């Protein structure tokens, strides 16, 4: 292992930017939280830390039992904090897991480039790009007809969401996401009683291909339902 020359250092840093950018472009095109710039910076920083770790080791080699992998190990564990920031919980849905895993892999690609393991970095970046792009489209194609969006306008009453959920479960529909928003400007007057209105947006997985007409009729039978739309 010899000292890294200026041209070799430039090559490694540039390559890490390119590979991080390739993966980041795929994330950016899908409007994910960690896009082009984030992935480039993670890959570039990991590469620099790996090169720095090797340089420090070469400077003290033979005089101490220093481990050149110690700084790199901190990147692997430390990137978890950045990945955790990409994970979000919206209602019953957890999003950002793929983005967090992508950041972790990008850090590994940067470390590989920094260590001069070019083939491993190139193959990994290519496989990550194929996995994120191809498998995402395949998943969308397989589940497209099984996914439904249900928009409900209903009177805001205690336990109303529970009643809707139970109705959907009876039809073996799986709730993948829930968003509830209130409209304080809209009030329903019923026998001198004013009741607020809420809007419920549901993402459903229609595993048994229940017809939309059946779903609409079942929800409309519930007390307090004003309107229901299925997309």
Describe the model.
Helix 2 packs antiparallel against helix 3. The model has no long low-confidence stretch (mean pLDDT 80). The protein is elongated, with a radius of gyration of 26 Å. A hairpin with a 2-residue loop joins strand 4 and strand 5. The chain has two domains: 6-116, no CATH class; 145-230, ACT domain (Alpha-Beta Plaits). Helices cover 56% and strands 22% of the residues. A four-stranded antiparallel β-sheet has the order 4-5-3-6. The protein has a two-stranded antiparallel sheet with strand order 1-2. It has 231 residues and is of the alpha+beta class.
Which labels suit this protein?
single chain; 231 residues; Alpha-Beta Plaits; 4-stranded antiparallel β-sheet; alpha+beta; 2 domains; two-stranded antiparallel sheet
Largest sheet: 4 strands, antiparallel
Order of helices and strands: HHHEEHHEHEEHE
Q: What is the approximate shape?
A: elongated
The radius of gyration computed from the alpha-carbon positions, rounded to a whole number of angstroms, is 26 Å
Distance between the termini: 61 Å
Counting helices, strands and paired strands, the structural category is alpha+beta
Strand elements, count: 6
Please mark out the parts with pLDDT under 50 across 5 or more consecutive residues, or reply none.
none
- How many structural domains? 2
Strand content: 15-25%
- Count of helical segments? 7
Mean pLDDT, rounded to whole units?
80
Helix content: 55-70%
Could you give the order of strands across the largest sheet?
4-5-3-6
């Amino acid at each position: 292992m010899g000292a890294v020359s200026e041209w070799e250092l430039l090559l490694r840093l540039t390559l890490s930017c390119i590979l991080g950018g390739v993966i980041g472009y795929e994330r950016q095109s899908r409007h994910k939280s960690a896009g082009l710039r984030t992935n480039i910076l993670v890959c570039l920083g990991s590469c620099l830390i790996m090169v720095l770790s090797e340089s420090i080791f070469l400077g003290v080699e033979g005089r101490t039992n220093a481990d050149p992998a110690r700084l790199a190990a901190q990147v692997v564990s430390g990137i978890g904090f950045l990945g955790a920031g990409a994970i979000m919980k919206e209602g019953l849905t957890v999003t950002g897991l793929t983005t967090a895993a992508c950041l972790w892999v990008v850090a590994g690609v940067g470390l590989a480039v920094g260590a001069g393991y070019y083939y491993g970095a190139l193959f990994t970046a290519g496989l990550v790009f194929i996995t994120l792009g191809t498998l995402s489209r395949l998943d969308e194609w397989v589940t497209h007809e099984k996914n439904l969006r249900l928009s409900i306008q209903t009177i805001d009453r205690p336990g109303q969401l529970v009643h809707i959920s139970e109705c959907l479960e009876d039809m073996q529909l799986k709730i993948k996401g829930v968003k509830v928003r209130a409209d304080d400007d809209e009030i329903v007057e019923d026998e001198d009683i004013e009741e607020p209105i809420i809007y419920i947006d549901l993402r459903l997985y229609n595993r048994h291909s229940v017809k939309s007409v059946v779903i609409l009729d079942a929800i409309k039978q519930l007390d307090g339902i004003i309107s229901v739309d299925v997309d």
